[in-house]
Amino acid sequence: MDALAANLRRLRKQAKLTQADLAEQSGLPRATLAAMEQNGANPGIQSVMVVAKALHVSLDELLVQPPEHRHYLVTPEQMQDYRSDAGRYVAHQVSPIASKGVQIHYVTMQPGCHTIGRPHPIGAQEFYHCLSGTSVIHIEDEIVTVPAGHLVQFPGHRRHIYANPDKNVVTTAMSVVVFRMG
After folding, report:
1. CATH level 2 (architecture), domain 4-69
2. Helix, strand, coil shares of the chain as percentages rounded to 5?
3. Which residue from 24, 149, 164, 175 has the fewest beta carbons nearer than 10 Å?
4. CATH 1.10.260.40 occupies which residues in the chain?
């Protein structure tokens, strides 16, 4: 639990809570929270769980080094594929599965591909960069043509459909979804 003290202080301050505020919300004594914020703290799992719930964060956000202090090496075996349109659409996830704030996919669309995008949580933004060919993205009632080299950004929770209108050329793209902007 080496990261607990620093993470707890950081997350509590981000939530603009004092130790007394967080103690009240979690149902723990303020002295317990103060002890948890000290390096070398060794609280019980129940205490850590109620604090995580009160802060609206996952356990790993309290217990694991923040992203700026760790790295991930993602092997090809760990990368997942999402396929649709009878396999003509493939989104190859290249970001770590454990990454909570962003998803990065290498997208391949065979000629004539047409598939419904998976909706993302409200507040998410999708950045779709067409690498080769031409993509057409239907974002609710708008139709956006994205030629190679261009990027479109849109709210990821809006209904969207990806298409490759070309009958002969494969389209490739990078899709980056950022779950919390700002």
Report:
1. Orthogonal Bundle (1.10)
2. 25, 30, 40
3. 149
4. 4-69
Please name the residue that has the structure tokens 């708008």: 142
Contact 50, 27 (CB under 8 A): yes
Dist. CA 26–CA 24, nearest whole Å = 6
Looking at residue 158, the DSSP 8-state letter turns out to be: S
Distance CA 24, CA 59 (A): 19
Residues of the chain with CATH 2.60.120.10: 76-178
Give the CA radius of gyration of the chain.
21
76-178 CATH choice from 3.40.50.720, 2.60.120.10, 3.40.1160.10, 3.40.50.150: 2.60.120.10
* Residue 17 CB neighbours (<10 A): 18
Which residues does residue 160 pair with via DSSP β-bridges, in sequence order?
139
pLDDT for 53-106, tens place per residue? 999 888 878 887 766 655 667 778 878 888 999 999 999 988 876 667 889 999
Query: Quick check: pTM over 0.85?
Result: no
Query: Token digits for 45?
Result: 């799992």
Residue 76 class from Cβ within 10 Å (0-12 exposed, 13-18 middle, 19+ buried)? exposed
